[in-house]
TrEMBL record:
Membrane topology term: Multi-pass membrane protein
Lineage: Bacteria, Pseudomonadati, Pseudomonadota, Alphaproteobacteria, Rhodospirillales
Protein name according to UniProt: TerC family protein
Key words of the record: Membrane, Plasmid, Transmembrane, Transmembrane helix
Cellular compartment(s): Membrane
PANTHER family: MEMBRANE BOUND PREDICTED REDOX MODULATOR, SLL1022 PROTEIN
Pfam families noted in UniProt: TerC
Entry's family note: Belongs to the TerC family.
Main location: membrane
One Gene Ontology cellular component: membrane
Transmembrane segments: 12-34, 46-64, 70-87, 166-188, 194-212
Length: 223
């Protein structure tokens, strides 16, 4: 625990917390938009299994990614992957997230054909309600979660660097936020867009740092 009380460790911890907050909110939005595309009576099941899948995948990737990053070259590859995630986040932030739907919003939305739905945020998703089965919606969430959970673990591992205690704290925090506070974070991100931009800057920095460190590892190996 002594490594928590250095300036470098505290800076890494703050980066990890910011990354967890932004990516947990993004995951909640994915769950909400998928749930909005199924009939109202089945949305609770989609939301439950979607969040359960996200938590399970995050734990799974946490168990394997820290070991994989010890392999020469994979830190570089992880940094490149994370940079691609940054590009996706940039495009989403630039579009102002007009179609974002959080899980509780999906639960309160009327089914397709409701008056005035098309003009609301997420109306496009609701207009398709009934056209997507529960299984298809859950599969959509799982596919998105595979990418987002790996992104989260890579970002946390990259920010934690040589601080294993902070790595563990970050991964536990990501699971807790996804399970307990993701919906609240999704609303905060939607209302205060600057939070997303701050998160994007931090994740971009982590990605570039991973590319720099990974490149040096590869060059040392080749020398």
């Amino acid at each position: 625990m002594t490594d928590l009380f250095t300036a470098d460790a505290l800076a890494a911890l703050l980066q990890v917390i910011a990354i967890d907050l932004v990516l947990a909110g993004d995951n909640a939005i994915v769950v909400g938009m998928a749930a909005a595309a199924v009939p109202l009576a089945q949305r609770r099941k989609v939301i439950f299994w979607g969040i359960a899948a996200a938590i399970a995948l995050r734990i799974f990737f946490a168990l394997i990614t820290t070991q994989l990053l010890a392999i020469i070259g994979l830190t570089l590859a992880g940094g490149v992957l994370l940079l691609w995630v940054c590009w996706k986040m940039f495009r989403e932030l630039r579009s102002h997230g007009e179609d974002e739907v959080a899980p509780d919003e999906a639960m309160s939305m009327p089914e397709s054909g409701g008056i005035g739905v098309a003009g609301t945020a997420g109306g496009a998703a609701v207009a398709a309600a009934g056209a997507t089965t529960v299984g298809a919606a859950i599969w959509q969430i799982v596919v998105a979660d595979v990418s987002m959970s790996l992104d989260n673990v890579l970002a946390v591992a990259g920010a934690a660097k040589e601080h294993p205690t902070i790595l563990v704290i970050g991964l536990v925090l990501s699971v807790v936020l996804m399970g307990a506070a993701a919906n609240m974070i999704a609303h905060a991100l939607h209302k205060h867009r600057w939070i997303g931009w701050v998160g994007l800057v931090i994740i971009t920095y982590v990605a570039l740092d991973m590319i720099w460190r990974g490149s040096n590892e590869v060059l040392r190996q080749l020398a």
